[in-house]
């Protein structure tokens, strides 16, 4: 039982990331009718916003000490982060420590701006072009973005730790009456899950309770009619795209302490997020979120050793965790082509 | 016994009875029109006839065989060709290529793997397609890009493509919808000529009375998903029930 | 000739001549000159030209004719390579069984993947193929390590003991004793040309592949594939079943990819999982659209173009750039070099991505259409007059 709970918890953080990316993909596809292969890159850029902020905050002033010498006899260099110089020692250190959550503030304007430029500068011209062209051009853009990041940040993962207050783990074992230490779950993963839940809730509330959201939902159901109502759908599209970009970016920012960001993380997540969208049902927002969490948890269960061993021994499928999502996607598409919650008529062909 | 027999067909969408107890018999070698006001269930009936919708009850038999649950291509191979409301042609291909495709489908069936044969050397197909283009008076447009033609020409090509398969039943779905008067009359003349020249059964779903009364030999009037009357055009014209259904007159 | 009309025969002959004389044509600069870095006439690169040409020709049969955009074709290339290396390990270094098996295995694999993926079309199809390819990639790295040798890559070990390998057989890939990596070098004055066995095997197979692709384009089968792209609704109501046609096209293009993979392994007996990655799939898509999807010669041009510039760009470094632009004043030279420096050396992928976007945005018909536009500009004919004289629009007609 404790193992099962642990696997579910372990699946939540990846599931959260899938759900957030898939949510953005679905929003863009549902409103703009565009298949955005660059969405993973937006997730990656979000993560690198956190990296950038951390690097900026940790910039150091180097002073050569006049009196002190190192053990080798050279003058001692005293490095002090500017943040500590400007904001005082304790507060400065705290800012550096909290750079990942602070990066949210930094990432929101950056992601909105990137989303705006992308939509106005590129995507806009592809509304009327075939899906194949949209896929191709956003695919090209994804390569460009990821190669630029590689050029400036290198190919290696960059460790971006969570604030020290969140570095430990919580022992659910004691809380739930199992053995101490049986369900250890890092604090930051809890934060990530809570954060995702808040974002998802905010997006749904926005769509449900604002006039803007109402128009967007109507647009997702029937784009032509809404266009005919004389509502300026174009500007709303831009805003939607910016919003989706921000959601992906924030998902990336907060994900950095879980897995050190590297330049190809976007594409890794994108392929799986597309699978999530397809499993959830193209065009269904609740489907995207549900499928995101389900597949995340499923993946986690597949890496659970008794299950893994079972597949290896009885079905001759070692490392089932590596391919389980694809297998499920294929089975779902074959048996229920519309996905879990897809509506009739959306991308039926 | 007609070539197309619709028996006791019922179809509900949720609370809406789209088709209620439809019985219809299209006799061989006639032009049979199905008319009715908007929402009478014409397009639902058409979708049942081409296998796109499966009715809740009842049967649709073509030449003694059921069409229900069959894919569109199977129904076509049985001998039913369909003309769409907006012309459905291969816009990216030339007129000649458009005409050759149904000829291949007629000769080779639903699938034929002949990747090394040469289109130009299939003389039987080329001749047949050219003859059909001559019949349709389109031979001078044979190299044209199909999408670049006028709507009337597209319609003409589509009808020609259907005829080249020598279908036993030609299904027309509002063939003159959205057409100018001149194009409409041309299409009527074309269909009259087709009927005069070959043994073919034509079923038209239409709401333009002018078209219907110029062509049809039998007319079925559909209202609220149920056939009201079926008779010759002359009798239909003055029928009180029809006037009521169409014009809302309480005669 | 060979069942082709005059225009296609001419095209085939031109391509054949270009392929056979490539060692001369690609080495126009003397070996010692500064421009020698632009030469492309060395065996390794020439092999890549024609092998990726085969890959792109095959991809074009699917994408160019039916419009189904597969994002997983590299999987078939990878499978072909693995199959070929296994033949080397089991039977010996003669490339014939390896190449044959690579085509068969890729075909079977394509049948399996195509059967499932083609139940959907449009973007669903693209995503499904992408997912399959990524799954194959992940499996090659992990699950299938006994077959693929995981991260190390599959290669022939001295402990393998192939069945038909005799002591006199060369211990490298060969064709009945003709060693693939051996070349004959001809020196003419300052020039040097190398004629590589492996290149000629690949070139001949590329010509066969190209010829078959012309036949497919001109066949009733090819016509049906174009009908799939144009209007599936009409096709279904014309008594034609679209799925077996698309599946056949998928399998054929998978077999082309398998052949390319088998040839890659025959030139260099190594097969790694990275050959199956999505970037590799993206590359063949780019080759095809860059050259001109749906045209005959386009994919070959695209493959040559990309492989050539990949080679050139990765050789250039910052000092080369400074050398080229030293005639510019510093305030212009430095930013220019800074900008270009992103795209060279290890930045080839960035160039590829940029090119991808530029082609899709500005030249959807690819190089072939670009060439036609220029041709029309020169001859002064407008597109409209051409249409009326009875020729179909250039982009959709697969002549060229």
Description of the structure:
The complex is a heterotrimer of chains A (about 350), B (about 250) and C (about 400). With about 350 residues, chain A is mainly alpha-helical. Chain A is built from 15 helices and four strands. In chain A, β1 (about 60-70) and β2 form a beta hairpin. In chain A, α1 crosses α12 (about 265-280), α9 packs across α11 and α13 packs antiparallel against α15. The longest helix of chain A is centred in the first third of the chain and has 31 residues, at about 1-30. The radius of gyration of chain A is 23 Å and the shape is globular. The mean pLDDT of chain A is about 85. Chain B folds into two domains: about 1-80 and about 165-250, P-loop containing nucleotide triphosphate hydrolases (Rossmann fold, 3-Layer(aba) Sandwich); about 90-165, no CATH class. Chain B starts with a strand and ends with a helix. In chain B, β9 (about 220-225) and β10 (about 225-230) form a beta hairpin. A six-stranded mixed β-sheet of chain B has the order 6-7-8-3-9-10, sandwiched between helices. Chain B is about 35% helix and about 25% strand. In chain C, α3 crosses α9 (about 220-230), α3 runs antiparallel to α11 (about 240-265) and α8 packs antiparallel against α11 (about 240-265). Mean pLDDT of chain C is about 85; it is low at about 385-400. Chain C has a domain at about 5-275: ABC transporter involved in vitamin B12 uptake, BtuC, CATH 1.10.3470. The longest helix of chain C has 26 residues, at about 240-265. With about 400 residues, chain C is mainly alpha-helical.
């Amino acid at each position: 039982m404790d193992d099962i709970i642990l696997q579910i918890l372990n699946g939540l953080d990846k599931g959260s990331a899938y759900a957030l990316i898939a949510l953005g993909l679905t929003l863009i596809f549902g409103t703009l009718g565009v298949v955005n292969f660059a969405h993973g890159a937006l997730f990656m850029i979000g993560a690198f916003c956190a990296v950038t902020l951390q690097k900026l905050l940790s910039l150091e002033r180097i002073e050569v000490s006049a009196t002190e010498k190192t053990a080798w006899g050279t003058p001692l260099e005293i490095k002090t982060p500017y943040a500590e110089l400007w904001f005082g020692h304790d507060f400065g250190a705290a800012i550096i420590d909290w750079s990942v959550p602070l990066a949210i503030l930094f990432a929101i304007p950056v992601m909105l701006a990137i989303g705006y430029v992308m939509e106005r500068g590129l995507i806009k011209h592809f509304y009327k072009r075939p899906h194949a062209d949209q896929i191709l051009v956003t695919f090209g853009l994804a390569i460009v973005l990821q190669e630029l990041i590689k050029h400036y940040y290198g190919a290696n993962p960059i460790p971006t730790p969570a604030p020290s207050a969140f570095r430990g783990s919580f022992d659910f074992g004691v809380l739930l009456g199992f053995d101490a230490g049986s369900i250890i779950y890092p604090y930051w993963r809890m934060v990530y899950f809570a954060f995702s839940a808040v974002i998802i809730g905010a997006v749904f509330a926005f769509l449900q309770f604002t006039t803007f959201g109402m128009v967007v939902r109507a647009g997702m159901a029937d784009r032509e009619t809404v266009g005919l109502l004389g509502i300026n759908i174009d500007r709303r599209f831009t805003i939607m795209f910016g919003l989706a970009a921000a959601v992906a970016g924030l998902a990336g920012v907060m994900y950095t302490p879980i897995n050190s960001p590297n330049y190809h993380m976007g594409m890794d997540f994108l392929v799986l997020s597309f699978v999530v969208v397809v499993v959830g049902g193209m065009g269904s927002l609740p489907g995207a979120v549900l499928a995101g969490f389900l597949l995340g948890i499923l993946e986690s269960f597949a890496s659970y050793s008794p299950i893994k061993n079972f597949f290896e021994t009885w079905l001759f499928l070692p490392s089932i965790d590596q391919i389980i999502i694809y297998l499920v996607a294929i089975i779902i598409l074959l048996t229920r082509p519309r996905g879990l919650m897809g509506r009739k008529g959306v991308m039926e062909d | 016994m007609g070539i197309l027999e619709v028996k006791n067909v019922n179809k509900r969408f949720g609370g809406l009875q789209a088709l209620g107890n439809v019985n219809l018999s299209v006799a061989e070698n006639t032009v049979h029109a199905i008319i009715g006001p908007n929402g009478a269930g014409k397009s639902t009936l058409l979708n049942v006839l081409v296998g796109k919708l499966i009715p809740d009850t009842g049967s649709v038999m073509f030449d003694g065989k059921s069409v229900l649950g069959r894919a569109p291509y199977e129904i076509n191979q049985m001998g039913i060709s369909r003309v769409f409301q907006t012309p459905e042609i291969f816009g990216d291909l030339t007129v000649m290529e458009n005409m050759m495709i149904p000829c291949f489908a007629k000769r080779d069936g639903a699938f034929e793997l002949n990747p090394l044969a040469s289109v130009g050397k299939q003389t039987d197909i080329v001749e047949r397609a050219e003859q059909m283009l001559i019949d349709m008076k389109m031979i001078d447009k044979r190299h044209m890009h199909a999408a670049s033609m006028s709507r009337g020409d597209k319609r003409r090509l589509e009808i020609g493509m259907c005829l080249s398969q020598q279908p036993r039943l030609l299904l027309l779905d509002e063939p003159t919808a959205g057409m100018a008067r001149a194009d409409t009359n041309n299409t009527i003349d074309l269909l009259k000529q087709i009927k005069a020249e070959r043994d073919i059964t034509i079923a038209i779903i239409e709401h333009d009375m002018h078209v219907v009364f110029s062509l049809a030999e039998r007319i079925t009037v559909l209202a609220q998903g149920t056939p009201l009357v079926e008779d010759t055009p002359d009798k239909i014209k003055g029928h009180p029930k029809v006037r009521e259904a169409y014009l809302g007159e309480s005669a | 000739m060979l069942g082709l009309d005059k225009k296609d025969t001419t095209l085939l002959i031109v391509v054949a001549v270009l392929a056979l004389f490539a060692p001369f044509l690609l080495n126009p600069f003397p070996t010692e000159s500064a421009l020698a870095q632009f030469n492309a006439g060395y065996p390794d690169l020439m092999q890549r030209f024609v092998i990726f040409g085969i890959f792109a020709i095959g991809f074009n049969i699917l994408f160019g004719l039916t419009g189904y955009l597969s994002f997983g074709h590299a999987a078939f290339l990878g499978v072909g390579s693995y199959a070929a290396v296994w033949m080397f390990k089991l039977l010996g270094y003669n490339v014939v069984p390896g190449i044959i098996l690579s085509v068969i295995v890729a075909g079977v694999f394509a049948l399996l993947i195509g059967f499932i993926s083609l139940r959907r079309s449009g973007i669903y199809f693209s995503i499904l193929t992408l997912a399959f390819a990524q799954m194959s990639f992940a499996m090659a790295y992990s699950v299938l390590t006994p077959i693929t040798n995981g991260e190390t890559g599959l290669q022939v070990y001295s402990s393998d003991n192939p069945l038909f390998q005799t002591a006199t057989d060369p211990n490298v890939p060969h064709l009945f004793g003709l060693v693939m990596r051996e070349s004959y070098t001809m020196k003419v004055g300052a020039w040097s040309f190398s004629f590589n066995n492996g290149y000629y095997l690949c070139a001949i197979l590329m010509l066969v592949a190209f010829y078959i692709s012309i036949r497919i384009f001109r066949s009733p089968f090819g016509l049906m594939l174009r009908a799939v792209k144009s209007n599936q609704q009409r096709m279904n109501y014309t008594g034609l079943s679209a799925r077996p046609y698309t599946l056949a096209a998928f399998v054929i293009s998978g077999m082309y990819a398998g052949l390319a993979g088998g040839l890659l392994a025959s030139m260099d007996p190594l097969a790694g999982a990275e050959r199956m990655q999505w970037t590799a799939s993206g590359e063949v898509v780019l080759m095809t659209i860059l050259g001109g999807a749906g045209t005959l010669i386009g994919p070959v041009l695209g493959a040559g173009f990309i492989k050539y510039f990949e080679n050139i760009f990765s050789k250039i470094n910052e000092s080369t750039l400074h050398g080229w632009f030293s005639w510019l004043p510093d305030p212009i030279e430095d930013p220019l070099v800074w900008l270009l420096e992103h795209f060279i050396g290890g930045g080839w992928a960035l160039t590829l991505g940029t090119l991808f976007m530029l082609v899709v945005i500005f030249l959807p018909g690819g190089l072939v259409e670009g060439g036609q536009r220029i041709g029309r500009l020169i001859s002064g004919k407008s597109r409209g007059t051409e249409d009326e004289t009875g020729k179909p629009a250039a982009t959709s007609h697969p002549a060229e």
